[in-house]
Design a protein that fits this description.
13% of the residues lie in helices and 36% in strands. It contains two helices and seven strands, in the order βββββββαα. Strands 2-3-4-5-6 form a five-stranded mixed β-sheet, covered by helices on one side. The chain has a two-stranded antiparallel ribbon with strand order 1-7.
C-alpha cells in the first residue's frame, strides 16, 4: 500500500515493488514513482509520474520482451463539502470530513496499467514484413467489374 499523509503533504521519489501495488512481479519491475504535491487554497494538487519496466508479449512474434513504460496522472483532493470547480479537466476527489490519510495504491496501479501500449511490438520485430494476403490467389475478377477496373488502371497511370 502507498498511503499519503494529508496533514503534512510532501512529495518525493519512491521505489515500490509490483506486489505492493497488487501486480505480478514477473510482469513489472523497477517501479519508480515521483510524487509532486502543491497546496492550494482549498485543495491539494497531486501529480504522479510513474515509470517501470514491463514484460510484454510482442503482437507480431508472440515473444516476450522488456520495455520501459511511463505515465503521468494528476488529481485534486478537496475537503468534504468544498466546491468542486467544473472547468477542471483533472480527477477531483472529495475527502471524508476527518480523513488524514489518502491511499494512492489504486491510482498508481491504474496509472501504470494505462501506460502499457495498445500496440506491443518488440524493437527487433519493427522491421519484419507482415503477411497481409493469405491463401491462393483469387481467380479472374468478376466480368461485371471490368469497366471499373479499366477506369482504375487508367487513373493510376496518370
Amino acid at each position: 500500500m502507498f498511503k499519503f499523509d494529508l496533514s503534512a503533504p510532501q512529495g518525493g521519489s519512491f521505489e515500490v515493488s509490483a506486489s505492493d501495488l497488487g501486480l505480478s512481479q514477473s510482469k513489472f519491475s523497477e517501479i519508480q514513482i515521483h510524487l509532486e504535491v502543491e497546496q492550494l487554497d482549498r485543495a491539494i494538487h497531486v501529480t504522479l509520474d510513474v515509470r517501470a519496466k514491463a514484460r510484454l508479449e510482442c503482437d507480431r512474434t508472440l515473444q516476450e520482451f522488456v520495455a520501459p513504460v511511463a505515465n503521468v496522472h494528476e488529481m485534486r483532493l478537496y475537503a468534504h463539502g468544498g466546491e468542486l470547480p467544473e472547468e477542471d479537466r483533472i480527477e477531483q476527489v472529495e475527502l471524508e470530513p476527518k480523513q488524514r490519510v489518502f491511499d494512492l495504491t489504486e491510482t498508481i496501479r491504474d496509472t501504470l496499467m494505462l501506460a502499457i501500449p495498445v500496440r506491443k511490438v518488440a524493437p527487433e520485430a519493427e522491421k519484419l514484413q507482415i503477411q497481409t494476403v493469405f491463401g491462393a490467389p483469387a481467380e479472374e475478377a468478376d466480368q461485371r467489374w471490368s469497366a471499373l477496373l479499366a477506369v482504375r488502371k487508367e487513373y493510376s497511370h496518370k
